[in-house]
Design a protein that fits this description.
InterPro entries: ORF2/G2P_dom
Number of strands: 10
Largest sheet: 5 strands, antiparallel
Shape: elongated
Number of helices: 7
Distance between the termini: 38 Å
Order of helices and strands: EEHEHEEHEHHEEHHEE
Number of domains: 2
Radius of gyration: 21 Å
Pfam families: REP_ORF2-G2P
Strand order of the largest sheet: 8-1-2-10-9
Strand content: 25-35%
Protein name: Replication-associated protein ORF2/G2P domain-containing protein
Helix content: 25-40%
Organism: Megasphaera hexanoica
Oligomer: single chain
Length: 253
């Protein structure tokens, strides 16, 4: 006899995701199911991998950043343009050290950041989500190697945040090269994850799979959260899998 697992991801104070899916083997309860790796991913598998990467990055950003933080693009002027990725990363980490000295001086904790190093026409630049608290003009002065365009993070607009995540991952087709260009501070927190079994029956899971556009259903199941979107998919081997995205309702603690 199988059971339905409900995994919840609490990403900071304002964002929440949950998965509902059925596990057929009781022995798998409490364990992560590992599927055998294949030599080459199919087109569909690559699509799923990319979607999984986007979801993981969105969860990480929502867990660690707020509307007070910023999305910043750092470019190099002609005088400071590095000749390779190692040089570029060195300049970025020097920037973070200077920035953190300034933050410490005014009583702020070390900056959190998550982003990527990119190359266009042989020129390096960074796209990074980074802690706010210092004016954008001052951050550009601290960078001092070129332009430091910045805008407030629209953390409450999940559509914009999803586009931002896709933008950050746009060069991920070359997976190994992409991994080497990810920049991430060590003080990032992970989402709080909880797992619950047996709350939903197989019949209820099937019913909910057809109600992914009914906000009131999900808001009743998860009180205190406002519905954003839900998606259900069916696999002949594993059955239904539902993913729901929600945000904390205003006034809720």
């Amino acid at each position: 006899m199988g059971f339905v697992r409900n995994i919840k991801y609490f990403c900071g104070k304002e964002y929440f995701e949950t998965d509902l899916f059925e596990l057929a083997d009781m022995r798998e309860r409490g364990r992560k199911i590992r599927k055998p790796k294949t030599e080459k991913s199919s087109v569909d598998q690559k699509r799923r991998n990319k979607k999984r990467a986007e979801r993981k990055l969105l969860q990480e950003i929502m867990t660690n950043f707020t509307r007070a933080d910023i999305f910043q693009t750092l470019t190099f002027d002609k005088e400071h343009q590095p000749t390779n990725a190692k040089e570029a990363n060195k300049e970025f980490h020097n920037y973070i050290r200077r920035l953190n000295r300034r933050r410490k001086k005014i009583g702020l904790p070390p900056a959190k950041y998550k982003g990527v190093l990119e190359t266009k026409s042989g020129k390096y630049h960074f796209h990074v989500v980074i802690s706010g608290g210092i004016s954008r003009d001052e951050m550009e002065e601290i960078w001092g190697k070129g332009l430091a365009n910045a805008r407030r993070l629209k953390i409450n607009d999940k559509e914009i945040m999803q586009k931002l995540v896709k933008y950050l991952l746009k060069e991920s087709r070359n997976e190994e090269k992409f991994k080497s260009r990810i920049i991430s501070s060590r003080n990032l927190e992970k989402p709080k994850v909880t797992k619950t079994d047996w709350r939903f029956s197989h019949r209820k899971l099937v019913e909910l799979a057809g109600l992914t556009d009914c906000a009131e259903v999900w808001e009743e199941l998860y009180p205190g959260y406002a519905f954003i979107e839900a998606e259900s998919t069916f696999n002949e081997l594993t059955g239904w899998h539902i993913t729901v995205k929600m945000s904390k309702k205003e006034g809720e603690t």
